[in-house]
Amino acid sequence: MAVTQKLMEGLEAFGFSGEKLTDLSQKMDKYINEIILFNSAYNLTNTSDYDEIVVNHILDSLSAVSEIKLLLNQCGTEQESVKIGDIGSGGGLPGIPLAAAMPEYKFVLVERMDKRCAFLENCAAILGLSNVSVMKKEAEKVPAESFDVATFRAFRPLDEKMTKTLLNLTKKGGYLAAYKAKFSSIQTEMDGIKTLVKDYSVKKLTVPFLTENSSEQNRERNLVVIQKC
């Protein structure tokens, strides 16, 4: 299966070009094919259609690259020491696309299921992602202050217990970056943990082929950012 025009156009919309575009598109093509191959056995995504995976999962994951880079710059940690955690990584989303797009940073994919950990390790090897490691643990058992930025997608809603867990594994001055959908739902969710999280910001994400039609609210994508004080 060849790299599709939709994948190329989506990556170009994010500003990737030249050798970077070629390298990233080839890596994502290999990754998508691995998802399709193992999806029925491992339940990795809600679709096995190539272009649906491109839009709903690959481009969606990559839509936060610029925001995450800004957060890393604000952390003040030396680049070679930075660690980004993908919590509840599942099939590697958003961790693998982010790691492929940001090879200068170390990524740790946190996943509790054995077979999914094996899938993630295999994908990292196939894609040549030397900046990726896999941690087989539940989020609650990850060592404290492991990450400068902890990110997560398709994760259960933030309640007080989970928020405490996520903040515990984030370094002081670090950030949680949660991929979310509707702004109205975010407000309701954050109201439920306002005694724990006093301040947060919401960054609007643009996903090619997904968020252009603003009349369809279910296509709204945002990144919720919480700093650990």
Number of strands: 7
Radius of gyration: 17 Å
Helix content: 40-55%
- The portion of residues forming beta strands comes to 15-25%
Can you tell me the overall shape?
globular
Please summarize the sheet with the most strands: 7 strands, mixed
Q: Give the number of helices.
A: 8
Structural class, from helix and strand content? Answer: alpha/beta
Catalogue the unreliable spans: none
Order of helical and strand elements? HHHHEHEHEEHEHEE
Mean pLDDT: 93
- Numbering strands along the chain, what is their spatial order in the largest sheet? 3-2-1-4-5-7-6
Alpha-carbon distance between the two ends: 47 Å
Entry summary:
The protein is α/β, with parallel strands linked by helices and 229 residues long.
In words, what does this structure look like?
The mean pLDDT is 93. A 7-stranded mixed sheet has the order 3-2-1-4-5-7-6. It is built from 8 helices and 7 strands, in the order ααααβαβαββαβαββ. The radius of gyration is 17 Å and the shape is globular. The chain has 229 residues and is α/β, with parallel strands linked by helices. Helix 2 packs antiparallel against helix 5, helix 2 (18-42) runs antiparallel to helix 6 and helix 3 crosses helix 5 (95-101). The longest helix is centred in the N-terminal third of the chain and has 25 residues, at 18-42. Helix 5 links the parallel strand 1 and strand 2 (106-111).
